[in-house]
Each structure stands twice: as C-alpha cells, then as structure tokens.
Design goal:
- The structure holds two protein chains of two kinds.
- By secondary structure, chain A is of the alpha/beta class.
- Chain A has helices at about 1-15, 25-35, 50, 55-65, 80-90, 140-150; strands at about 15-20, 40-45, 65-70, 90-95, 100, 105-110, 125-130, 135, 155-160, 165, 175, 180-190.
- Chain A has one domain (about 1-190): NagB/RpiA/CoA transferase-like (Rossmann fold, 3-Layer(aba) Sandwich), CATH 3.40.50.
- In chain A, the strands form three sheets. Chain A has a six-stranded parallel beta sheet with strand order 1-12-7-4-2-3, with helices on both faces. In chain A, strands 8-5-6-9 form a four-stranded mixed beta sheet.
- Chain A is globular and about 40 Å long.
- The mean pLDDT of chain A is about 90.
- By secondary structure, chain B is an alpha/beta fold.
- The radius of gyration of chain B is 26 Å and the shape is elongated.
- Chain B has a six-stranded parallel beta sheet, sandwiched between helices. Chain B has a four-stranded mixed beta sheet with strand order 8-5-6-9, with helices on both faces.
- Chain B has 21 helices and ten strands.
- In chain B, helix 2 (about 20-40) crosses helix 12 (about 250-260).
- The mean pLDDT of chain B is about 95.
- Chain B has three domains: about 1-35 and about 310-395, Fumarate Reductase Iron-sulfur Protein, Chain B, domain 2; about 45-295, Rossmann fold (3-Layer(aba) Sandwich), CATH 3.40.50; about 405-460, no CATH class.
- The chains are: A alpha/beta, B alpha/beta.
- Chains A and B meet through helix 5, helix 6, strand 9 and strand 10 of A and helix 2, helix 8, helix 10, helix 11 and helix 12 of B.
Chain lengths: ~200, ~475
C-alpha cells in the first residue's frame, strides 16, 4: 500500500501518528491508545463522511453512553454554552476525514459552513478515522476530485497537517499551542482487501 | 505604528549596537533559510511552480479591479458583509462601527500584517476596546510593548531568557526558560480570551475570486479560534491578495508553506465561505471582509513596480538577505522589512520618507532567487534607487559629486588632469576624511604612480616603461 506508507511516514515526520487496520480491529486499537490513561472524556463528531463509511456503527457499541455525540446539524434544544463546556472537558475527539493526502500527511475535512470545527481544535488529542479509499497522492489529485464533485464545490475546507505547533521561541518546536498536541490517524481498510 | 524609515541611516548604528538581539536574529534567519533550502531541494518541479505562481499572480494583478468586483460579488452571495477601505483611517473607522454595532469589548486577533500597517490595535485600544494578540510571537510582543521584527517569527529578536523574564514579570508565573512551559502558560491565558471574546479579527492569506472565499494559513490554530469562537469575525484583506480559482490554491498553499517555513504544508489551512448556518454548532454568526487599499493601487500605475504586489508575504527574502540577517527587522522602521520592505516602503510612505532603504543592499540577488512568485526583487531595488535619484531626494553632496564626476568623466583631458593632481594631493590631504561613509570600513584606493594609459603611451613611443 504505497500511498498509506507514504502518508504514515510524512505524518510521523511532523509529530503525528498513523495506523493501518481492519474494521474489526478498530475498538481494540482505540482501547490500546488509551489503555494506560484513566477515565477519559470522548467526543465524537458524526459527520456525513463518518456515516458514509459506517464508522459510527463501529463506535456506537463502545461509546454509546460514555461519549458526547455531535451530529452535523445542531439540535434546536442545544445550549451553546453547554456544548462548549462539553468540548472543553473533552480529552479525546474522534472525527472522520473526507480525504487524506499522502505526500504531506494531511487530513482534509470538507464542511458546509463550520460544522465540527471546534471539535478538531479544542480537545488536546485528536483521532481521525479514514477509509483507505480516501487516500490521495497529492494536493493536485485532491483539487481534481473537488472540481468533479457537485456538493463538494459548496464546502468550506480545512487541511490539518499534524499537531498544532510553533517555533516562535528561539525556533524551538513546541506542539499543542492552541490546537491538539496529538493527532492519530486510523486508516481503515475494508475487511476483504489485502493489507 | 509610526513609520521611522526616514531615520534609517541615523538609527542603524543603535540597532546594530544591540549585539545580543542581532545574534538572535542572525541565528534564527539562518535556521529558517536552511530549513527552506533543505525542504525545497526535494521538490523536483519547484522552478515550474515559481513560474506558475508568477504567471497567476500577474494575471490577477493585471485585472485587479474586475477581480475585486467579482470576489466581492461572490463573497456577498455567501452571506459575507464586504466593505472597501481606501486608507487606514477608513479601515479603522469601519472596524469601530462593526465593534459598536455588536457591542464588542474584547477582541482577539491573529497575526495580520495589514492590521499592523493600518495601526488597528492602537486605534481600538485608544477607544477603550481590549485587543488581544493570540499568535504566540505577537502575544509576546504585546506583553513587551514592542513591534514585530519579522513576518513569520515576529519575536525572533528575543531569546528564551528574554521571554522567561517577560512572562515571569508580566504574567506572574514562575520563572522558566522551557519553551514548552512558556507556551502552555500562553495557551491557558489565551484560551480564556478566545472563549470570552466578542469579536475575532484575522487577515487573509488569499481571497479566491471565483467563489468569494478566503484562505488562512497557520501553524498554531489561533486564527481558527479567532474566526470560529467569537460571534463576529472580521477579516482584513489587502486588495492585492487574490488568486483566481480554487484549483490554484494547491500551488499557493505549497509555495507559501515551503517558502515561509520549509514545511510541506502548515498545520492548519482553512478555506472559508460564509458565516455559520443556523444549524451549525460552530462558527461566527456574522462575517465581514474589509478590503484595504491604503496605497496599493498606486503601484498599479507603474508596470514594473506593480510586480511587488505579487508578494504572498512568505518572508523567504528576509531570511536570505545578508542585510536583514545583520540588522534585523526594526531597523527598516515600518511593518514591511527585508528586501520586499525596502522595495515597497518608499512607495507606501513616499520616496522622501524611505530614501535609504533601497540603497541598503549589495544587490546580491538572493531575494530574487528565493521569491516563490519570482518578483525581481533586487532589480526593483535598483529601480527604486533610480526613482529616488530622479525625484531629487538624494543629498546635495551626492548631487554635486555626481555632477562633477559626469563633467570630469566626459572629458579625457579633464580626467587626466584630475588624476595627475590627485596623485600629488593624496599625499597631502586625507581624502578619506571627506568620505567617512566609505573609508570607515574600507581603504580608499590610491592613485597609481603610473596609470595604465601613461605606461602604454610610453611603451608605444619609447619602447619602454616610463620611469
């Protein structure tokens, strides 16, 4: 899987991590990632891409009661302050990527006007679920996809390349300035594909 | 900030005397230049990318007025409120109106050169608004009461000891030089500000003509906080910062990230269309673009100079410039520094207010080599020199010396007479004392006992050297 290997390498270079796994391994990997930590607060963004990939079906059994679930459309009953408080108390955010760019280790999120933005920004750890089919070689390949998709032309886009960082103090790299310090991309292959 | 470019020559020794600061800057720029060079070495078609960048920016600037109209039309269709500001005063007045309309008191902002240029912070603070810089480097400077000395790393002139002392004193936290500790402290304080802010202000790295969207490029995530958390967002946009299509964005994301920081891509690049929809969890409810001219359109009248508008504000030219590396950003006296600053500052402030800047260069051309959109920077420096001389803005000593030299140089007889005279006088009069600017660090060349012409004539006539 050359694209995955390149993606994993690029992401690692800039302080993030990636893993390739099968659908059936998802829960155990998530468990492993937070095995040593005590009670963590999870928040999950159930975006249209997550539903399209059916990842939420994998997550529900484990996270139905012990995580905040946010959908694309905010329910009218939702209190803005309450929502923000939930995000501030979140330790781990789980989202799904629309595309992954292999040659830069980038996660691409397509959104119509800002759904799910804060979830990828406030919590200190970010887990991104992506289908291995969403791997693209480079930016030109992504923009080509964009120009052929109908709905996608309407979306705002966020490109996330590794953790939040700065080198403003003597050019020394520090991660997790305002955004997440840890970015973990779980690339999920279909069960019947070869690794 | 009040421009001080007029006093460049006079103030330069003071800046250079600050050896520790200069050492910080030299070190940081070399690191940045090396990082960029190492990263770009791996890109096979980098030169083609620069060509394309140049071509696309030229096409936008050549039709900037219609492009701005198209951009505005599309932005309005997305639900953005667009205002145009002719100058700094207009831009700031619009900003105050918006703040008033929304009863905003606390304003958080991300790094934006155009807001420095128009003096937004001071304007708002004088009117009792709280303005909080949220980019770590800018936050450090705001605490210290200083202005940026570099585009990308504004606090580059400060060491970690400086910052440790500053935070310890101003934030009342324990003294520590650990960058991680200092950054965490800033993160916690600034998060409170983000969450309670009424208004978020950003710049925009690019505006996309075809769909009226803007693109913000950053590493920290503070700009995203600024345009997502507060209810109201204002993006200040320089009128020249447009690219034609979404398809062009990939090229410019790479040109900017690589040239600024030697990164494939920065951590966060956000393309945003409009304010939040009613059913969104996140995002500003009202979004404004303030498109600022403030002197940019004056570049358009000059076909050669207008190339300076192609600039995408990456600061690659700063990092490789031997002058910048050794004098730092503050010496330039205004917000734009390094080679691009030396080119555009005389146009923005008036030639007479930045006379020395284009001359403070050895024209080595490193800037032109690294510019991601192939602006012929060192040629433009020469061009600005020419304009400054033609406008009569050089010293009367220089003017009269040039006149004298022209007259002597045009006549063989005069020239030879001056040489013969000089040959004798150089032993009696210390000529160097009249040209201290030159002789302070160089030896004045001596006129030879025999000039080449004299030797040649003698050999031709007498078959031997004169004696």
């Amino acid at each position: 899987m050359k694209l995955y290997e390149q993606f994993e390498q690029e992401l690692r270079k800039i302080g993030g991590e990636a893993q390739l796994l099968e659908k059936s391994e998802l829960l155990s990997i998530l468990d492993q990632l937070h095995h040593s930590k005590k009670e963590l607060n999870f928040s999950i963004y159930e975006s249209s891409i997550m539903k399209k990939n059916q990842f939420e079906k994998l997550l529900r059994p484990y996270f139905s009661n012990n995580a905040n679930w946010f959908s694309e459309k905010m329910p009218s009953s939702q209190n803005q302050d309450e929502y923000r408080q939930q995000l501030l108390e979140t330790d781990v955010a789980i989202i799904s990527a629309d595309y992954l760019i292999a040659d830069s280790g980038t996660v691409v999120l397509l959104q119509s006007n800002h759904e799910g933005q804060l979830l990828t920004l406030l919590p200190p750890k970010l887990i991104v679920l992506a289908s291995n089919n969403s791997l693209l070689p480079n930016l030109p390949a992504f923009f080509k996809k964009l120009s052929t998709g109908e709905k996608e032309k309407e979306d705002s886009i966020i490109f996330i390349t590794g953790p939040s960082k700065t080198a403003d103090i003597e050019k020394i790299l520090v991660l997790g300035v305002h955004g997440p310090e840890e970015v973990n991309v779980l690339v999920i292959s279909d069960d019947d594909e070869e690794r | 900030m009040r421009p001080k470019s007029k006093y460049f020559k006079k103030d330069l020794p003071l800046y250079m005397a600050n050896e520790k600061v200069i050492a910080n800057i030299s070190r940081a720029t070399r690191i940045a230049a090396d990082k960029r060079r190492n990263s770009i070495e791996c890109i096979k078609n980098w030169e083609e990318m620069r060509e394309a960048g140049h071509r696309i920016r030229k096409s936008v600037i050549d039709n900037i007025r219609s492009n701005l109209d198209e951009f505005e039309k599309n932005a309005v269709r997305n639900g953005i409120i667009v205002k145009r500001a002719k100058n700094a005063l207009e831009a700031n007045e619009i900003a105050v109106e918006i703040a008033n309309e929304h009863q905003a008191k606390r304003i958080v902002k991300s790094k934006s050169m155009i807001t420095e240029e128009i003096g937004y912070n001071d304007y708002m603070i004088k009117r009792d608004y709280e303005v909080v810089e949220t980019d770590l480097g800018e936050y450090i400077l705001q605490l210290a009461g200083e202005s940026p000395s570099h585009l990308i790393g504004p606090a580059m002139h400060k060491s970690r000891v400086d910052i440790a002392e500053l935070f310890n004193k101003k934030l009342k936290i324990p003294y520590s030089e650990d960058p991680q500790f200092l950054t965490r402290a800033a993160r916690n304080i600034l998060r409170e500000k983000f969450l309670s802010a009424d208004l978020g202000v950003t710049g925009a790295n690019f505006g996309i003509v075809e769909n009226g969207s803007i693109v913000i490029v950053e590493n920290e995530g503070n700009a995203r906080m600024c345009f997502t958390l507060p209810k109201v967002h204002i993006a200040f946009i320089g009128m020249e910062r447009l690219i034609p299509k979404v398809n062009d964005l990939g090229l410019f994301m790479t040109l900017l990230s690589q040239s600024a920081n030697g990164q494939k891509l920065t951590s966060y690049i956000s393309l945003m269309k409009g304010p939040r929809s009613a059913s969104s969890y996140d995002g500003a409810e009202k979004r404004y673009y303030i498109i600022v001219d403030n002197g940019r359109s004056s570049f358009l009248d000059d076909d050669y100079l207008k190339q300076a508008l192609y600039c995408i504000r990456c600061s690659a030219c700063y990092n490789v410039c031997p002058v910048y590396q050794n004098i730092g950003g503050h010496a330039y006296g205004w917000v734009y520094q390094g080679p691009i600053g030396a080119v555009i500052t005389p146009q923005f402030l008036g030639l007479e207010n930045a006379v020395a800047l284009p001359f403070a260069s050895s024209l080595c051309g490193s800037c032109t080599d690294v510019c991601p959109v192939k602006i012929p920077l060192h040629h433009l420096l020469l061009y600005q020199r020419n304009r400054i001389v033609k406008s009569g803005n050089t010293s009367s000593l220089e003017k009269s010396s040039m006149k004298a030299f022209t007259s002597i140089g045009k006549s063989d007889k005069k020239f030879n007479r001056v040489i013969k005279l000089g040959r004798v006088m150089q032993n009696l009069i210390p000529f160097g004392a009249f040209v201290r600017g030159w002789s302070r660090s160089r030896e004045l060349p001596r006129i030879a006992n025999t000039t080449f012409h004299e030797w040649w004539d003698s050999v031709a006539k007498n078959g031997k050297s004169p004696n």
